[in-house]
Amino acid sequence: MTSGPNSNATPRRAKVCVYCGSSPGNSPVYVKAAQELGRLMAENNISLVYGGGTVGLMGEVAKTIVSIAGPDAVHGIIPEALVKWERDATYSTTTDANGYHVPEEQIYGRTTVVKDMHTRKQMMAREVIEGGPGSGFIALPGGYGTMEELLETATWNQLGIHDKGVCLLNINGFYDGLMQWIKTAVGEGFVKGGNADILVTANDAESALKALREYKVSDARYGLDWGSE
Ligand code: AMP
C-alpha cells in the first residue's frame, strides 16, 4: 500500500501503442481483430497512442475506441510527410493549408502532426512508458512499417530504454514466421536466450492485454536510456 503525499492520486491510466497495417489486409479477420482489440481497450479504460492515420487497421482500432470511450482515449501522432498518404476523406470535414484531409476528432480522437518519423516514434513510446500498469505495445498484422516500428521497440527494450511489454497479436498465424526467426536467431547465437521473450505472443486481444499486464522484463538487457542510444 502506498502512503505519503501521492497516496490519493488517481492511478495512471494504462496506455497501449498499437502498431498495425495501413492496409486492412485481404481477409476480414484482420479488421475484426482490430475492432475487437479497440473494443476491449475501451472497455478496460486503456487509452491508445498510434500512428494517427485513418486508413487500414490503424483507422479501425482508433475509430472503435473513440466510438466507445470518446476522443480523449485516443492520441494519433503522424509525421507531416505521411498526412497526404494516411488520412482519407471518409471522416474529414476540413482540409489543412496544403489541402490534405484533417480527420474528425469526434471519430478518430486527438491527433498531433510532428516533423518526422523519429519524433513520432519517441513520442508514442514515451506515452507508453509514462502510462499506468498494463501499458505496452501490441502489433497487429501489418507490412514493412509495422515490422520496422515493432522491431525498433523490441530493440529499445533489449537496450533497456523501456521495460514495457511488446506483444504480437498473432491473428491467423500471421506472426508464426517472425516467431520462428526469433528461435533461429537464438539458436544461432544472434539473440541472447534471455532476450527471446522480449516479444511475447497472443492469439486474441484479451490475451494480448493480459500479456502486457503480466509482462516480465528480461535480465539479459543493457541499461541504456534515450540519450545513450
Ligand atoms: P505498413 O505496415 O507498411 O502498412 O505501415 C504501417 C505504418 O508504419 C505506416 O502507417 C507508417 O506510418 C509506419 N512506419 C513507421 N516507420 C516507417 C518507415 N520507416 N517507413 C514506412 N512506414 C513506416
From TrEMBL:
Determine the domain of life of the protein's source.
Answer: Eukaryota
Q: Which Gene3D superfamilies does this UniProt record tie to the protein?
A: 3.40.50.450
Please provide, alphabetically and separated by semicolons, the GO molecular function terms listed in this UniProt record: hydrolase activity, hydrolyzing N-glycosyl compounds
Sorted alphabetically, which SUPFAM superfamilies does this protein's record hold?
A: MCP/YpsA-like
Share an example GO biological-process annotation for this protein.
Answer: cytokinin biosynthetic process
A Pfam family annotated for this chain is Lysine_decarbox
Kindly state one GO CC term assigned in the UniProt record.
cytosol
According to the UniProt entry, the coiled-coil residues are none
Q: Which InterPro entries match?
A: LOG, LOG_fam
Q: Which protein is depicted?
A: Cytokinin riboside 5'-monophosphate phosphoribohydrolase
Q: Which organism is it from?
A: Daldinia eschscholtzii
